[in-house]
Amino acid sequence: MKQKKRSIDLTQVTQWEDGIATRVEDYLAAEEPLEMRSGNFPLGVTLRTPGNDEELVAGFLFTDGIISRREDLISLQTPGDKTIERNFVDVTFHPDVQLEAGSTTRRFSAGSACGVCGKATIAELRRRGLRRPKSTTLFDPEMLCGLPPRLRAAQDVFARTGGLHAAALFSPTGELLVVREDIGRHNAVDKTIGWALLAGRLPLSDHVLLVSGRGGFEIVQKSIAAGIPLLASVSAPSSLAVQLARELGLTLVGFLRGRRFVIYAGEERIAVSASALHGGS
Question: Which residues does the annotation mark as catalytic?
Fold first, then answer.
């Protein structure tokens, strides 16, 4: 018998349809807490969909500036299979990584949609030394339009539950490299970037990151940290996300649906006509 995925829970529900109520089984996206520690040093707790926990932790530590390279991580370990143990990751840092009391726990919210996680201003991100993504790639609009169907086709858990966000990394030609799902949109992004970090693929200088929800401020910040030049979403970005993308040189695309999208920042990386960029004049 095939074991049920930890990312999915099965429950009994009452379904009403056209005047008839029936008792049926339904799939739910799992949500459990994940605690990070380094020895006796608490790093924080988040709510996430179980699966790819090591990638989630690695991605969070990198995009939040706690580590700056793969070599800063010696190991990531989940102690066991019991419910309590499986919701725990022990991080061993390189001796050069210095942690200050309270410097990480304040950043890691207990919610699955923590958003900015304590970083209130773009100026604070500038002090971290985030730089403009390096990329000479000119991305094809037709290629971009083909990405959402590929992402949806790869969302295994969403197809069964309808309740997860997803983040997918694509090559410059539109090849799907990795997709990660989570109940928190920023967790899905951290899992994706964590995959790249652990695989030694950062910076992602010529890649496209596509997210299934909106392009929020924290998603833009994480993309820039990973060196991603183009972030696309199927929904709208926030005003602060657009401001950050413009200031730090990220190409930001929203409402990527069918054969339409909106470029909010970094138009020079997308092969649209010069007349379009100048209002048709």
Answer: 114
The boundaries of every CATH 3.10.20.10 domain in the chain are: 32-120
Q: Where are the alpha helices (DSSP H) in the chain?
A: 53-63, 83-86, 122-127, 141-145, 147-153, 156-161, 185-198, 217-225, 239-248, 274-277
C-beta separation of 205 from 225 below 8 A: no
pTM: 0.84
Q: What is the pLDDT of residues 172-210, one digit of tens each?
A: 999 999 999 998 889 999 999 999 999 999 999 999 999
The distance of Cα 276 from the centroid of its chain, to the nearest Å, equals 31
Domain 141-277 CATH assignment equals 3.40.140.10: yes
**What is the per-residue DSSP string for 179-242?**
EEEESSHHHHHHHHHHHHHHTT--S-TT-EEEESS-B-HHHHHHHHHTT-SEEEESSPBPHHHH
Distance CA 235, CA 211 (A): 9
- 32-120, what's its fold? Ubiquitin-like (UB roll) (3.10.20)
Strand partners, 33: 47
Most confident of 19-23, 42-46, 190-194, 212-216: 190-194
